[in-house]
């Protein structure tokens, strides 16, 4: 078996998407492994999830740095120390500097709880409900300097139901996120999706593995 791609996961909180990646990597046939988990928040729940699995964890507290670039250099140093090749943002609530993003270009991916390019930014689910949209979902994309704007790797759709609250839509979307992120990481780790200029380019993708997964309606 070929070496698994060493992956760093950046988190700020709960870490349920991190957990879905940890679970996927528990399968020895999965093409990536989690080499380290880094949080900008000490005590983030996700750090304990990683610690339980014996995964290296680091806290790089953003409050300790005057400049965004200095914080990002420390992140970069921790990732390099752990010989990471791919970086997954999983509920990492810090904007990264252009220098960091360019350095990791094509190897840095993020999950966002909407069908991008709609509903970028924070507080997505309330805005989706207010908009009257009937379909929402989640997106894994390559990170580029402009927020929530990079080329799309994979998306999953979920329905917006008539009686949805932010909580119920968030929970339904999160379940889809947990399926989508391992799928996207697998495509990247296997080299079946690459960032080519401003586009995500796919090779050897069957129809069943297409970029849109529709989880069954609940
Ligand atoms: C997830 O819903 C993720 O999509 C979202 O934060 C949540 C983190 O949950 N990310 C963003 O909004 C990034 N713009 P988790 O910590 O349980 O994975």
Structure, briefly:
The protein is of the alpha/beta class and 218 residues long. Helix content is 32%, strand content 25%.
Would you write up a description of this structure?
The protein is α/β, with parallel strands linked by helices and 218 residues long. The protein folds into two domains: 1-104, Rossmann fold (3-Layer(aba) Sandwich), CATH 3.40.50; 111-218, 3-Layer(aba) Sandwich (Rossmann fold), CATH 3.40.50. 32% of the residues lie in helices and 25% in strands. The protein contains six helices and ten strands. An eight-stranded mixed β-sheet has the order 3-2-1-4-5-6-7-10, with helices on both faces. A two-stranded antiparallel ribbon has the order 8-9. Helix 1 packs parallel to helix 6. The longest helix has 24 residues, at 166-189. The chain is globular, with a radius of gyration of 17 Å. The structure holds glycinamide ribonucleotide. Residues 11, 13-17, 90-91, 111-113, 174, 177 line the site of glycinamide ribonucleotide (GAR).
